[in-house]
Amino acid sequence: MICVLTALILFGSVSGKMQGVVTDEATNEPIPDANITILNTDIGTATNSDGYFHIVHVLPGTYTVEVSCMGYQTKRIQDVVIEIDQTVRLAVELLPTLIEIEPVTVVSEKPVVKKDMVSTTYIIREDEIATIPVDYAFALVRFQPAVAIRDTALHVRGGRETEVTYLIDNISIMDPQNGELAIVLSKGIIDEIIFLPGGFDAQYGRAMSGVINMIAARPSERLQVRAYGKTEALMPYYYDFGYGNVQASVHTPLTKQVRGFIAFDAAHTDDWNPKLYVLPHKQRDDYSIYGKLLYAPSGKLRVNVSGAQSRMQFDRYNTLWKFNLDHYRSDMRTGNLEVINVNYTPSARSLFSVDVSRLYTELTFGVREPGSYGLFDNFQFRDHLTLEWPQASMRNPFGVYTRKPYSAGDYPEYGNKSSLVYRINTQATVQLHTYHELRTGFEYSHLDLENFHYFVSNTYDVIDSYHYKPHEVSAFVQDNIDFAGAFIKAGVRCDYYSPDIDSISPKLLVAPRLGASFLVTEKFLFRANYGVFTQPPLYDYMYSLYNLLPLPPYLEDYYKEFVAPVGNPDLNPEKTSSFEIGLQGKVQENVGMTVNAFYKDVTDLIGTRFVSALPVSYIQYINVEFANIKGLEAIFDFETSAFTGKVSYTLSWARGSSSYAEEVYQQYVYDELDTAATPPLQEYNLDFDQRHRVFIQGALNLPFDSQFFVFGYFGQGFPYTPPSPEGKTEERNVLRLDFQRQIDCVFTKSLRIGNRTLTAYAEVINLLDIRYPLGYHYPLISYEDIKPWEFDAYSFQSSYYSPAADLNHDGLITPDELVVGYRELARQTDDWVNVNSAPRRARIGFEVLL
Question: How far apart are CA 122 and CA 584, in angstroms?
C-alpha cells in the first residue's frame, strides 16, 4: 500500500470517467470478460468477474461505446457524453445468441442526475460561451447564481474578491503577490468553464470562495479556421464607448499523431469601466496569444505543450485628478505561461500525469509618457526621479486656489513588480476496487518575487524594494467511494509555505474535505458536504514595506497619506469552514430544479491595525477580521425543442468585520473619517452583501438558422455608509443603494455555404437603458465650507490672482466671485458620473468558420 500511495499523485487531468456493469438480458447475471470499446479511439477495457468495468481517463466529447462478448449480441451505445471531472455510468444488457447477428444500436439516455456531484458545480459549455455578451474568459461566470458583481470585482458566495482562484487546464494563472490575473485570455480559446462555488475537492488549494477552471480548446483532427470581430461604432456618440474586439484561431493537424491549435485576440476600448458616458483617461488596449501542441503516439500516451502570452494596459480616471489627468496613473501588465503536460494511461483503471509549468507576470504603474500608443505599443513610463509632489494650485477652470482636486504635480507613485512561478506536480488516479477510486497528489512551487515601489515626497522619497524566493508545497489524498445509490468523497489537503525570511517559521495547513450524495428518488439527488478551505496570504501582505522597519522619523507625517500598510511575513493563512446541502433533480420531464443551502464561517481574515512603535507608529496587516456568510440558491432550468432557459434566485447574508484587507487603513486613516485608528471589532453588512439576486437566461431557436438569447439580472442594491456628523463612521453600511436591474440580449443569424459558416451577431447590453446607482457621491469640497466672509479680495498683482476667477475681468477677484468659483468647483468634482451604471450599448459582430 505504501508503494501505491507513493506512486499516486495529484489527479489533475482535464478528462472524465466511464464506468458501468454488463449483465445478461435473460438472467440478469453479470457477464465477465465482456469487451468495452470506445469507437474511433484506442481506449478499451474488459469487465471483471462481477461484470463491472472502469475507464478512468476519457477526454471530453461525445462517443459511441461498443460492448461485445462471445455468445451475445454486440450492442453499440451512441451519444455517450463525457464531461470533465464527471462520471458516466452505463448499465448494459446483452442478448444471448447462438449465432452471430448484426450489432444492435441504442442511444444513450442522459441521466436525470449525476450522483458524483457532491457539491455545487456549474458547467458553462462551448455553445453557451459563444453567446454570452462578454469577450474575456474570466468574466464568463458573471451570470451564475453564486456570483455578485460590485463594480469590476467578482465575489462568490459572499467572499472577498481575492478568495477566488482562476485556472486554465488546472494550472493557476494568479499573481501570487496581489491576487490579480497574471494573464488575460479571450473566451475564443475556451471549450468549457467549470465553476465550483463551494465544497470543491481536495485537489484545489489557494481558494476559499470559488474555483474557476477554464478548459482550453483541444487541437482538432481536421483543419479549422475561425475569424471573429465585434464593434459598437454604430452607436451614437453618447452610447459609443469605442469598444472593438477581434479574434482568430486555427486548428492544424500536422500528422496523424501531432496536431496544434493557435489563437489570437485583440481588444480596444475608450472606457474600460463604462459609467454614464465616456470619461477621459480610461482607454485600454489588450492582446493575447495562446497555442497548444498535442502529440499522441498511442492511446496510452499523450503529450501537451501549451503557452500563452498577454498584455493589457489602461489609463485610470479619478475625480481627484480631473484637471490633471495626464499626470495621473496608468497601468501595464504583461504575462506569459508555458506548460508541458504528459498523460500516461497504463490501463483503463489508472492514469498518471506530470505537469511542469512556468508563469511570469510583470506589473508596471505610474505616470506614462504623453502621446498616442498603437494597439501593440507598450506604455512608456516617466522616470520616477522626475515625478513631482502634488501641490495646491489655481490650475483649474475656475481659477480658485485648492489642494484637492490636484491640478499640479504628478501621481506620487511608481511601481514595478514581477512574479515568476515554477511549478511541478505529478498526477494520478487509480481504481483500486469496484467501489473505491483513489486520488492523491503532490505539488511543488518555487516563486521568485521582485518589487520596486517608489513614493514621491516633498521632503524625503521612499523606496520599497525587495526580492524574495519563497516556496510552497502541497499534497492531498482523496477516496471516491461509489457504492449502490450513494457516492462519498473523503479527502484531506496539506499546504506548506515558507516566506524566505530566516526569522519567520514556515506554516503548515491541514484542510479536511468530506462530501456525500445519494438518490432520494429516481429523479432527485440529495447531497451534503463539509470542508475547511485555507488560503496562504498574498505576498504583498507579507512583504510590503517590511524591509523599512523600523520606519524612519521623516515618515511620521507623510506615511498616513500616501504610503501603504506595512507587510507582515508572519501572517497565518485565512480559513473558511463551509457547510452545504443541496437537492437536485427533475420536477417534470423538461424541467429541472436545484436548491442549495450554504453556511460559511470565515476566520483569520487579513485586516489592518495600528501598531504603536518608535520612532514611527504604522498600520500593519494582521489576521484579525472575520465573516459569517449564509444563503440559499434556487435554480430552475427547462428545455424544449424551441426554447431553453434558466432562472435562479439567491438569498444570502454576508456579514463580517471587514470587507477588504485595507479597510481600516482606508476608512480610518487615509480618508481621515475617524480619528480612531483601531475601530471596534464588530459585525456589519459587508460591501458586497447582496440580499436578493435573480438571474434569467434564455435561448430561443428561430427560423432560418437564427437564435435569440436573453440575459436578465435583478438584484438588491449593495450597502453603503452615509456621511455622518464630523465624519464619524460608528455605523457601517446601514443604508442600501437602489435596486439594480439590467437586460442584455444577443441575436445570431448563421449562413452555411458548403463547409463554411458565416454568423452575424447583434448584441445589446442594457436593452432597456436603465441606469442605477453604484455608490454614494458627494463633492470634494463641501458647500458648507464655502464661506464668503472668510475670503479676501485679490488684485491682478497678487500671486493668488487668476483670470478664470475674475468673472467681470476688472483685475480684481472679489469674495463673491470666489464663492461662484468654489461652488462651481464643488459641482464639477461631485463624482455622480462614476457612481451610476452604464447606458444602453449595442454591438455588431461577424464570425467566419472554415
Answer: 13
Q: How far is CA 451 from CA 181, 223, 329, 331, 416, in A?
A: 17, 44, 18, 15, 6
Count of other CB atoms within 10 angstroms of residue 280: 12
Question: Rounded to the nearest 10 degrees, how much is the dihedral formed by the CA atoms of 113, 117, 122, 128?
Answer: -50
Q: Are residues 663 and 810 in the same domain?
A: no
Cβ atoms within 10 A of the Cβ of 554, count? 14
| Pick from 661, 743, 518: nearest CA to 179 | 661
Burial classification of residue 717, based on how many CB atoms lie within 10 Å of its CB (0-12 exposed, 13-18 middle, 19 or more buried): middle
d(CA 165, CA 293): 25
Q: How far apart are CA 567 and CA 621, in angstroms?
A: 6
Look up residue 783 and give its DSSP letter.
G
Strands 104-107 and 75-82: parallel
* Rounded average pLDDT per 10-residue block, the chain, 850 residues: 37 72 90 89 86 87 89 88 84 83 73 76 89 91 92 92 94 95 93 90 92 93 93 81 94 92 95 91 96 90 94 94 94 97 88 94 97 90 93 86 88 96 91 89 96 87 93 94 87 94 93 92 90 95 93 72 82 96 89 94 93 85 96 93 92 95 76 54 91 95 93 94 62 89 95 90 93 86 83 85 88 89 88 89 92
Give yes or no: residues 810 and 729 share one domain. Answer: no
Structure confidence at residue 9 (pLDDT): 34
First to last CA, the chain: 52
- Same domain for 796 and 672: no
Is-contact 629 659, C-beta < 8 A? no
Task: Tell me the residue type at 675.
Answer: T
Instruction: For residue 609, give the C-alpha cell.
Output: 491595525
Is residue 159 situated within a structural domain? no
Task: Give a yes or no: residue 429 inside a domain.
Answer: yes
What is the rounded CA–CA span in Å between residue 356 and residue 306?
11
Q: Which residues pair with 124 in a beta bridge?
A: 193
Q: Which of 79, 107, 135 is the last residue of a domain?
A: 107
Q: For residue 481, how many other CB atoms are within 10 A of its CB?
A: 14
Interstrand relation of 507-519 and 524-535 (parallel, antiparallel or unpaired): antiparallel
Instruction: Please say whether the beta carbons of 155 and 688 come within 8 A.
Output: yes
Residues 689 and 805 in one domain: no
Residue 399 DSSP code: -
Task: Say what the pLDDT of residue 393 is.
Answer: 85
Gap between the Cα atoms of 781 and 827, Å rounded? 9
Quick check: is 457 in a domain? yes
The closest alpha carbon to 171, from 344, 310, 340, belongs to 340
Q: Rounded to an integer, what distance in angstroms lies between the CA atom of residue 148 and that of residue 215?
A: 23
Dist CA 622 CA 569 (whole Å): 10
Distance CA 335, CA 9 (A): 29
The pLDDT of residue 522 is 80
Q: Do 655 and 792 reside in the same domain of the chain?
A: no
Q: Which domain holds residue 688?
A: 215-361+396-765
Global pTM reads 0.91
Q: Which domain-ending residue is among 89, 107, 125?
A: 107
Q: Left if phi > 0, otherwise alpha if psi is -120 to 50, otherwise beta: which for 830?
A: beta
Residue with cell string 467511494:
481
Q: What's 472-527 look like in SS3?
A: EEEEEEEEEEEECCEEEEEEEEEEEEECCCCCCCCEEEEEEEEEEEEECCCCEEEE
The set of cell numbers assigned to 492 is 484531506
Q: Is residue 605 domain-shared with residue 698, that is, in the same domain?
A: yes
692 and 821 share a domain?
Answer: no
Written as nine digits, the cell of 545 is 514595506
Provide the grid cell at 205.
488549494
pLDDT of residue 833: 87
DSSP assignments along 142-199, one per residue: TTSTTEEEETTEEEETT--GGGEEEEETTEE-B-TTT--BSS--BGGGEEEEEEE-S-
Same domain, 792 and 756: no
Residue 560: what pLDDT?
Answer: 57
